[in-house]
Amino acid sequence: MRALCATLYLVCLLPGLLAAQRIQRTVVLHNGYEAGQLVRNHTVVHYYHNSRERVAGFVTVNRVVQYAHNGDPGRYSTWVETDTLCTFAGTISRGKKDGTFPAFPPGNLFFVYTYENDEKNGPFDGFFHFGQRFCEGTLAGGIKTGPYREYYANGHLSKSQQFLDPGKNVLHQEDYYINGKLHHRGYFHGDNKVNEWQYFNADGTLSKTEYYNQYGRLKKIRNENQDGD
C-alpha cells in the first residue's frame, strides 16, 4: 500500500518536476524611441536536459513604419514592423560553453559569439541596440583573425582590417569617413605602420602619402602636389 501511494505521488509530482526543467523568460533591455524607431527587444529561452543547460533565443527589432496618405503630409498611417535580427543556440556543460551565445555589455552594443570548449572560436557579430550591424569577424582563442569590419550607426563601413595571425599582424587596414568615403589605408607589421599609407579628403581626393620602413619609422611624406621629408 505504501509503495502504491509513493508511486502515485511520484506520478503526480513528475509533471511539475519536468516543468521546472524548462525556464522561459522575455527580457526587454530597452523599450523606447531613438531616431524615430522603437528600439529592439530580445527573448532568451533556457531549458535543461540531462544536466546540460541549453540556451536558445533570438533578437528582434521593432521598427516604426510611417507613410503619408496620398502624399498629404498632414495624414499619416503608422505601424510597427518586427524583424528577427539574429538567433543563437548553445550548450553549457560543466560550466563550459559550446555554440553561439549573446553578450550584452554596458552601452549601446550587443554581440553574438561562437564558443568551442568555453573559448571564443569562430564567427562573431556585433549590433547597435536599434538593430544596425556594428561589426563582424572571426575569433581564434578569443583573438581576431582573418577579415574584420566595423560600421557606423548609419550603416556605412567604418573600418576594414585583414589579420594574418590572431592578434599579431594586421596586413591591411582601411578607415572611412562617416559618409562612406575612404579616409586612409595602409599596412601594419605588428603595431607598426609599414610601407605606403594613403590619406584622402572627405570628397575622395588623395591628400597625402606617407612612407614607412619595416621598423615603423616614417621616411617620407608626399603631399598632393609636393614631396616632404
Please characterize this protein's 3D structure.
The chain has one helix at residues 2-20; strands spanning 22-27, 33-34, 37-38, 41-49, 52-69, 72-93, 96-103, 109-116, 119-128, 133-140, 143-151, 157-163, 170-176, 182-189, 192-200, 206-212, 218-223, 227-228. With 229 residues, the protein is mainly beta. The strands form two sheets. A 16-stranded antiparallel sheet has the order 1-4-5-6-7-8-9-10-11-12-13-14-15-16-17-18. A hairpin with a 5-residue loop joins strand 13 and strand 14. It starts with a helix and ends with a strand.
Which key phrases capture this entry?
16-stranded antiparallel β-sheet; mainly beta; 229 residues; 18 strands; disordered N terminus; Outer Surface Protein A, domain 3; single chain
Quick rundown:
Helix content is 8%, strand content 65%. It is built from one helix and 18 strands.
Query: Total number of β-strand segments?
Result: 18
- Mean of pLDDT: 79
* Element order: H for helix, E for strand: HEEEEEEEEEEEEEEEEEE
Low-confidence stretches: 3-21
Q: What fold name goes in the CATH topology slot of the domain at 132-229?
A: Outer Surface Protein A, domain 3
How many H/I helices?
A: 1
Terminal CA distance reads 100 Å
Our Rg estimate from Cα atoms comes to 26 Å
Task: Briefly note the structural class of the backbone.
Answer: mainly beta
Level-1 CATH class name of the domain at 132-229:
Alpha Beta
CATH-defined architecture of the domain at 132-229: Alpha-Beta Complex
Helix content: under 10%
Overall 3D form: flat
Describe the strand arrangement of the main beta sheet, using strand numbers: 1-4-5-6-7-8-9-10-11-12-13-14-15-16-17-18
Reported for the largest beta sheet, the result is: 16 strands, antiparallel
Report strand %.
over 45%
